[in-house]
């Protein structure tokens, strides 16, 4: 079975069938929707995919964090098929369907926002979830501004791309919306020289407070929006002590704390959400935006907030045609059931332990491996020219990604300097596949350095 297979490359990449399809892609699609991987998928199972030429790849990207339960889970197929035979769609503004209600009830149970009485709405993508979370915060507080961070990625819609730090994602599409102000995220690996962690965290807190002095007064801020682990920014975890301090600043000033768990959510961190760790530390967010792995590959996103917050939104501000589509809700309910039943949070920690031990060895062995970080198995490896200067090494990362693909391992870069390799492997990967992937990645580093 493909789900238990190991990588096997039979043709030069791309193979002849893949090459023909990729050439058609170039004629039919905008080049700005970029892809440099030399394969065209024909089927996928677990953490493995097979291309149209019969080459088999181990996928450590998983649709950029979408496939936590892997490709083509048979129970997911059955759940969607069962729903499809009843009806595909019923817009919740017109006809209530119970699948939306069941999924909202489940999300209210598992999503760790601050208020224990919760409500959830559904949309279609991570960017939509973020936009709706911001609208909810503004409508509830009556305030116009939001605070975001350096290194942030929140999506490609107009507001979300304004919130996103890297302006390559918003080049030439201005003017951008007003009322978005940026503080410095605690990137400890590149923090102030000579500071210990506690001093660095205090430094970044002062940077946040400076925004209130120089950009938006605190009483005009509706929300602080942050990723518990920055994704596109380089897989940089928000230090827990910093989150505690941000939570206090929000509480002291009537500001809502929004956690963008689009990429971090659904078992990847060792808990269902990174915000579960925050909740245990007494600093749970007010609103959580989730997407990606929520429905195993069917477009769906969610915004969960305290009932008193979300009920403060005026009619007509939130909603949409496809949000909470019946097929997507059926899929999401089954995804959560599988994650809980198969203990994928615990599996995430097992995978993370093996990877962190191996990545740690590479830090000692290779001058170019500058940092290894993450929460659970949402992990990143930052590559530099040398450990002393910490000069980003995007060229090496680009070469490693290409080399790994030629040997059957799909990995992806991230980071403000494109010098981080991200680990987003499906949590259903087998131990043998994981070992094989680590071997391919290590040999690719050695071949390219």
UniProtKB/TrEMBL annotation:
<dbReference type="GO" id="GO:0034386">
    <property type="term" value="F:4-aminobutyrate:2-oxoglutarate transaminase activity"/>
</dbReference>
<dbReference type="InterPro" id="IPR015422">
    <property type="entry name" value="PyrdxlP-dep_Trfase_small"/>
</dbReference>
<dbReference type="InterPro" id="IPR050103">
    <property type="entry name" value="Class-III_PLP-dep_AT"/>
</dbReference>
<dbReference type="InterPro" id="IPR015421">
    <property type="entry name" value="PyrdxlP-dep_Trfase_major"/>
</dbReference>
<keyword id="KW-0032">Aminotransferase</keyword>
<dbReference type="InterPro" id="IPR015424">
    <property type="entry name" value="PyrdxlP-dep_Trfase"/>
</dbReference>
<dbReference type="GO" id="GO:0047298">
    <property type="term" value="F:(S)-3-amino-2-methylpropionate transaminase activity"/>
</dbReference>
<dbReference type="GO" id="GO:0030170">
    <property type="term" value="F:pyridoxal phosphate binding"/>
</dbReference>
<dbReference type="InterPro" id="IPR049704">
    <property type="entry name" value="Aminotrans_3_PPA_site"/>
</dbReference>
<comment type="similarity">
    <text>Belongs to the class-III pyridoxal-phosphate-dependent aminotransferase family.</text>
</comment>
<dbReference type="InterPro" id="IPR005814">
    <property type="entry name" value="Aminotrans_3"/>
</dbReference>
<dbReference type="GO" id="GO:0042802">
    <property type="term" value="F:identical protein binding"/>
</dbReference>
<protein>
    <recommendedName>
        <fullName>(S)-3-amino-2-methylpropionate transaminase</fullName>
        <ecNumber>2.6.1.19</ecNumber>
        <ecNumber>2.6.1.22</ecNumber>
    </recommendedName>
</protein>
<comment type="pathway">
    <text>Amino-acid degradation; 4-aminobutanoate degradation.</text>
</comment>
<dbReference type="Pfam" id="PF00202">
    <property type="entry name" value="Aminotran_3"/>
</dbReference>
<keyword id="KW-0663">Pyridoxal phosphate</keyword>
<keyword id="KW-0808">Transferase</keyword>
